[in-house]
Amino acid sequence: MNPRSRLRASDLLPVGSVGLRTRHLRAVLSVLGIGIGVASLVAVLGIAASSQADLLGRIDRLGTNLLTVVDGQSIGGTEVPLPMTAPVMIGQIDGVTAVAPTAELTTVHVYRHDLMPSVRTGGMSVRAADIALLSTLEGSLSAGGYLTAASERKPVAVLGSQAAQTLGDTPRVWISGHWFTVGGVLNPLPLAPEIDRSVLIGFAAAGAFYGHDGHASRIYVRSRTELVESVAAKLARTANPANPVGVRASRPSDALTARLEVARSGTGLFLGLGGVALLVGALGIANLMVIAVLERRTEIGLRRALGARRGHIAAQFLTESLLLAFLGGVCGVVLGVAATAIASLARDWTVTVPALAVWGGLGAALLIGALAGLYPATRAARLAPTDALRTT
Amino acid sequence: MKTPVLKLNSVRKVYPGSPPVASVDGVDLTVRSGELVAVVGPSGSGKSTLLHLMAALDRPTEGSVHIAGRDVARLSDPALAGIRAHHLGVVFQQFHLIESLSALENVAMGLLYRGLPAAARRARAAVALSRVGLDHRPRHRPNQLSGGERQRVAIARAIVGDPAVVLADEPTGNLDSQNGASILALLKDLNASGTALVIITHDRMVAEAMERRVELHDGRIVSDSDGAS
């Protein structure tokens, strides 16, 4: 008979947890070390994912197929008129689904009432707007109605959301010498903040009351999503064939997309910091295991006397280290998800924890447990049984 | 003639140093099945080294150590571990119990490295605990047991696997005389039921109680009441 020393795989966990059951506080502290590291990684990834999901959601809701055309700006920052033909020409570009011209009336200002000093314009501008503007921007009203074919000839104004705040609750506004009835108030338009700051009147009214010639200065264009790029490329030449260089065609959703990029690049830095925390946790485990091997020399000697091979001793200490790291990983994932949930709910984001963060966090913890346990386990295994027993 | 379970032939164990120290120097000793042997000698006589060699925890520098018919000097570490797991039981002066495990679990540890299922280990551990008279305290932790009870647990752990030979290193060294006497009586009982037993001691009173006494001095056997080895 060839008697073999054998340790069942199912015994590895109870054997590997003997040390943890004896020294609770130390085990808890080491678990916490790894836990904090993993939690910071999971929270960084989770919060980043939640904020990105929120941005992506907003971009999706607002659409990336809105384009604006402006013919440069004057030195004073006001818009310059585009040729009369621009809206019609743009409407003929393949892929364009809606066109809404607006014109900033640079010499016209709006006041709450006729007694206001003329210099207090409140940063608002008065804008002639097409009746298709609301549908083109996919905007909505918080009160009243928008301009119609009938009302655009009359002294009726629709207030942008910020302009409405500035002017306050008022049934009519004073626009450079004429009273205008407030017909409606718009909800905020994240892709057209200049409309938020404007008071809109019809082109016909602008012509009738202020002699505006009908030139547009800013045109909003909706296109089919798949043709946005090609439409954008043609806009400048189509809007002002005589001088396309001055025309700016822009895509307002690009600003949000840029924020997404910024959020992504910031994540890298925080991940690095989380990695440092994890490294500190790893040193904690390695330290605990080295001390455990020193303190438990007699246990090692006893186990060898009872028939354990070197490999069994190494496996025991490696299991203990992996167990510590795994518990730390689980705590870390739970803490990280909780932190993500709290941070996201506080900002009204949907809580998004990527699977990569959960599995990556656990995987990183186990990897660290293996690395931190390798050296102590090897030391324990190399210990001669006679030396181990002699230390008492 | 009973079969030898432990056989040392011209065993020398030299520890390096200047000058090198021969802790065990030319020992011939045979322990047969069912025998009760006391190895007695003063501190530094090489008792511990001899125990380590007999327990297959160390290999001799010269000579051969046969345990259950196999020469440990030529065995690999895993094969030595196999010998320890299956053929040997060791009882230590300091008991060496695991504090976080119950008495029953400590005893079951004696079978851990045989690869037996946990349920089988516990069943055999319960039998061993009752053999040492502790079947009423299986769930107690070592710190809830008296010194004598702890040594009984350690003895149960050594005999749980029915080894060919049990080696006891100063088994009464940490006990008062009353507990020591009852532990010796227990060991003699176990021997009477067939287990070969080698007790290492510096205590002549303990040695006197054994049927065979081997006296060790400066690493050599100076007397052996058996005379046959």
How would you describe the overall organization of this protein?
- The complex is a heterodimer of chains A (392) and B (229).
- Chain A has 392 residues and is an alpha+beta fold.
- Chain A has two domains: 11-59 and 257-390, no CATH class; 65-252, no CATH class.
- Chain A has helices at 9-16, 18-22, 24-62, 86-91, 133-137, 161-167, 193-196, 203-210, 228-239, 253-295, 297-305, 310-346, 355-382, 385-390, and strands at residues 66-71, 96-104, 110-111, 125-129, 141-144, 156-159, 172-175, 178-186, 198-202, 218-223, 247-250.
- In chain A, strands 1, 2, 3, 4, 5, 6, 7, 8, 9, 10 and 11 form an eleven-stranded mixed beta sheet that branches.
- In chain A, strand 7 (172-175) and strand 8 form a beta hairpin.
- In chain A, helix 1 crosses helix 12.
- Chain A is elongated, with a radius of gyration of 35 Å.
- The mean pLDDT of chain B is 90.
- Chain B is globular, with a radius of gyration of 17 Å.
- Chain B has a six-stranded mixed beta sheet, with helices on both faces.
- In chain B, helix 4 crosses helix 5 and helix 5 packs parallel to helix 6 (177-192).
- Chain B has 229 residues and is α/β, with parallel strands linked by helices.
- In chain B, 32% of the residues lie in helices and 28% in strands.
- Chain B has a single domain, classed as P-loop containing nucleotide triphosphate hydrolases (Rossmann fold), CATH 3.40.50.
